């Protein structure tokens, strides 16, 4: 018995066509690499043109896959339809959709704005990307999967879609997690359940991956990192590569009996 082959076959994504939104961000880049390393042809979807194109070339060179970058506004249905048609023309099928793109104004001038003064315009911008974008991508690409009678959708959410943001760890710090982010991530968790139930007879599996805080010293100060870490059972924030295995699990046949579920990776934040 070849034990390595058994494990490989479970997580193998050889020649799978995977659409990854938000591909040029810190997590998107991680996901693109782990999926490519598993043999997938990753469609890199982002509004960031130069960075996304560089990532495409790196993946092709490193993993010898057919990665391709598309510049898409996921809140624009026409953009998504055009992208979908291009993908089908090139690859003939779409196996996996990963709704990873999001907008969190936690580093903007509005990050510490109180609920009472939070701008409606910014609320709508976050809704457009974090919720409408997930809906439109799932609607268009999920419909393709339903016709194929095969497909996987993974929606990336957050622990702040499950529990309230603990205002005590932010204090007077300009860094905060605004109301719009929590509202959209909570909505994504339940949208996942709806889609899983809706396509139950079409062999389209839909799951959520809810993430805890990821360490980023470029904008997080020591006081915040310490307070956040103390709220987790593991006593620290996540490194940017610690969500890769869970994403690979949800994208592959290793999770073949899993749908409508929310997989939480938060270092134990929500366990106590």
Structure explained in plain terms:
This protein is an alpha/beta fold and 272 residues long. The protein has a single domain, classed as NAD(P)-binding Rossmann-like Domain (Rossmann fold), CATH 3.40.50.720. Helices cover 43% and strands 14% of the residues. The protein has a seven-stranded parallel sheet with strand order 3-2-1-4-5-6-7, with helices on both faces. Helix 4 (77-91) packs parallel to helix 5 (120-148).
H/E element string? HEHEHEHEHEHEHHE
**Number of folding domains?**
1
- Computed over alpha carbons, the radius of gyration is 18 Å
Low confidence ranges: none
Do you know the CATH architecture? 3-Layer(aba) Sandwich
Report how far apart the termini are.
Answer: 42 Å
- Which fold name corresponds to the CATH topology? Rossmann fold
- Give the overall form: globular
Structural class: alpha/beta
Spatial strand sequence of the major β-sheet: 3-2-1-4-5-6-7
CATH class term: Alpha Beta
Instruction: Please identify which CATH superfamily we are dealing with.
Output: NAD(P)-binding Rossmann-like Domain
Beta-strand percentage range = 5-15%
Helix content: 40-55%
Tally of DSSP helical segments: 8
**Major beta sheet summary:** 7 strands, parallel
| Count of extended strands | 7
Write down the overall mean pLDDT.
93
């Amino acid at each position: 018995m070849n034990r390595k082959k058994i494990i490989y076959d479970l997580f193998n994504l050889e020649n799978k066509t995977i659409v990854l939104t938000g591909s040029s961000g810190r997590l998107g880049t991680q996901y693109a690499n782990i999926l490519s390393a598993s043999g997938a042809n990753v469609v890199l979807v982002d509004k960031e043109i130069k960075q996304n194109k560089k990532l495409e070339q790196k993946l092709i060179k490193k993993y010898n896959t057919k990665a391709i970058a598309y510049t898409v506004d996921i809140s624009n249905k026409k953009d998504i339809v055009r992208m979908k048609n291009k993908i089908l023309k090139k690859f003939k099928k779409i196996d996996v959709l990963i709704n990873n793109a999001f907008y969190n104004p936690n580093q903007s001038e509005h990050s510490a704005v109180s609920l009472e003064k939070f701008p409606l315009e910014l609320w709508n911008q976050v809704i457009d990307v974090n919720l409408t974008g997930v809906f439109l991508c799932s609607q268009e690409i999920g419909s393709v999967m339903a016709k194929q009678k095969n497909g996987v959708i993974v929606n990336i959410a957050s622990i702040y879609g499950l529990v309230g943001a603990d205002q005590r760890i932010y204090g007077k710090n300009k860094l905060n997690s605004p109301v719009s982010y929590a509202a959209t991530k909570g909505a994504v968790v339940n949208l996942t359940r709806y889609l899983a139930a809706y396509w139950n007879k079409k062999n389209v599996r839909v799951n959520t991956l809810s993430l805890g805080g990821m360490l980023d010293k470029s904008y997080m100060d020591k006081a915040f990192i310490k307070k956040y870490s103390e709220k987790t059972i593991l006593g620290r924030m996540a490194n940017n590569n610690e969500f890769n295995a869970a994403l690979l699990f949800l994208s592959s046949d290793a999770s073949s009996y899993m749908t409508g579920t929310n997989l939480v990776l938060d270092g134990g934040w929500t366990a106590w």
